[in-house]
Every structure is written in C-alpha cells, then in structure tokens.
Amino acid sequence: MKSSVTWLMRHPRAKTNHSIERCFEAIDGGMQTVAPPAIQPMVHVVPRPTSGLFSMLQNCWAALQIQADIAHITGDIHYVLPFVRAKHRILTMHDVGHVQDPAHSKLKRWLLLFIWFKWPLRHCDTVVCVSQKTRERLGKLVPAIPGQKRLVIPAAIRSQSLEASDAHRFPTDQKIILQMGTAPNKNLARVWSACEALRCHLAIVGPPTDELNRLQARGPLSHSLHTNVSDEELERLYLGCDAVAFVSTHEGFGMPVIEAQVFGKPCVTSAIEPMKSHAGGGAILVDPKNESDIQEALRNALNDAELCARTIDKGRVNVHRFSGDEVARLHVQLYRELLER
C-alpha cells in the first residue's frame, strides 16, 4: 500500500516574512530529488492566517479533513495538530520565543503556552526542532511526554536563483549594510548607531515600528526600509548589499546567516546559539549587546578584504548542510522510521 505523507502548512500572512515557506520550498525541491514516490508529501495549506478565534476554528476544521499515515504540521498552526487524523503526527518547531515575550500579559503568555505548545504536544509523537537551542528551550517550557521523540533537523535554505546583475540598485554611493528584521530581538538600534559612525547606508528589511520611528527622528542616517518584500526582491537585496547585519539577541534558527553565505556576503552575527553553531565559521561573531563590537565588526566586513574572503569561503562550504537535498534526506529518514513502526 502506498504510504501517505501530508504537509499541513500555515496560510501565508500579508506584510510579514515568509521564512518558513522558503524553508519548506527548499525541502520540497529536495524531496523531488531524494524521496521515493511513496514518501513524496502532499501539501495542504490551511484556509486562513491565524488572526483570531474564528480563523483558528476554520483552520481546525480544515485539519479535521486530513487523513494520512504521517501528518507533518509546520508554521504557527500548532493548535490544529490534535484534529488531524493520522497514525503519526510530526510538529516542526521553529522557535518558542513569542510565548515568553514580556510585552504580553501573564494571562496571554499562559494562553499561548497552552494553545500553541502544551495541548498540541500531547497529541504529537515526533517533534522536529530546527536547532539544538530550540529543543533546549522547548524542553524547559514543556517536557517531552513518554514515548515522544524530539530531534533536530535544521531549516533548509533556498539556493541562489538570480544573477549578480539582478542586484537591487540603491540610490547612493555609500556602502550598503543589509539589516534583517525590525522586531525587538533584531537589535536594530545598535546596528543603526554603528552605521551612523561608519557613514554607510542601512537597508532594513521589515515592517515599520515605533523604535524605527524614534531612530529616524534622531539623526540623518542614510537608510531605506523594505517591507513585505517578495522572495525575488529579497534575493536582489542580498545581491546588492556589501555586508549583512544579523546581531539578534534571540533566534530559533537564524536563517539570514546562511542566506548571506548563499549569496557570498560577509555576515556579522551574534556569538550566541544557534547563530554561532549554524554559521560554521563563515560569519563574523560579536557580542550582540556590545555596540562597539558591532561597529568594529561591520567596519571589518566593509573594509577588510582578506577577512571577508576567508569568511565567505567558509560560508560557501557551510551552506551545504542546509541545502534542500540534505535536509530532505533527513526528513525521508524520519518518515521511513515512522512508517516501519
């Protein structure tokens, strides 16, 4: 009998990043190469982005229609997992940070923990974490239930599809630092200050925030804001920059570090997990809370040709372990183990 593997994915949200979708597109491409027909996944996307109780109920109803030997859920729709009819249920865990956000009330943090973690995990036999750090954080939040397997399979990164000539053209002669993200953990204020000192152009990918408004009001830093960018435009921004800044204070995986390596750009990132391990020596590591460290590292990324060449070369080697084919192989191995039970 033909085995059935189903991916159940979130409905993409407008005006936000689609890193999870990019990850699974890369894995899907790898599956076409490395997976036998019996394990080729069918992809279902829930009908609504998660934006309140009504959308969640609609998504749960859609999940109830799924029947499979293996159901693999990813994205921010953990809550649908108990409704899927499957012999085996897999949940990919990308991050756990949002449930601990101190900006949320104590009640909201409790609800997030229960709805997105405690309740779904009771109905899940396998949890895939994209980093060892995410697995450790999850274990502190919700201990594994008896018989539940928790393993690490990294996110997959899409390969470059555009040519260097397709790079985004910035209206400035200054060197370009590409800052990935505007959320509080993305450390924008410290990068902004470093770029002021270096007199370079800061290209920011992410939605406008109150913090960004305050930074714009304080000084004349040359900068540009790129919101709701397509995958193609994101590639063009990587190709058009001189260096990437990703000195986040907290991440579940740290995809921009590997994306910078794909496009052959020096990346300044945090000397904390999971970025430190995932960089594989192919990035310039800094203390994300030390503004002078960030400034010096960005200066080196823009001006030290020998350091950049070494960093880029190590990055080109490192990206192979995050390729669609390699990550797909790890998923195929997991699916086979489950189907043989």
Summarize this structure briefly.
The chain is of the alpha/beta class. 41% of the residues lie in helices and 17% in strands. Helix 5 (188-198) links the parallel strand 7 and strand 8 (201-205).
Give the spatial strand order of the biggest sheet.
Answer: 2-1-3-4-5-6
Looking at the structure, the CATH topology of the largest domain is Rossmann fold
Helix fraction bin: 40-55%
Oligomer: single chain
β-strand amount: 15-25%
Give the integer mean of the pLDDT values: 93
Coarse structural class: alpha/beta
CATH secondary-structure class of the largest domain: Alpha Beta
Order of helices and strands: EHEHEEHEHEEHEHEHEHEHEHHH
Number of self-contained structural domains: 2
- Principal-axes geometry comes out as globular
Poorly predicted residue ranges: none
Describe this structure in words.
By secondary structure, the chain is α/β, with parallel strands linked by helices. It folds into 2 domains: 5-156 and 323-339, Rossmann fold (3-Layer(aba) Sandwich), CATH 3.40.50; 164-321, 3-Layer(aba) Sandwich (Rossmann fold), CATH 3.40.50. Helix content is 41%, strand content 17%. It has 12 helices and 12 strands. The chain has a 6-stranded parallel sheet. The chain has a 6-stranded parallel sheet with strand order 9-8-7-10-11-12, sandwiched between helices. α1 (19-34) packs across α12, α5 crosses α10 and α8 crosses α11. It is globular. The two termini are 15 Å apart. The mean pLDDT is 93.
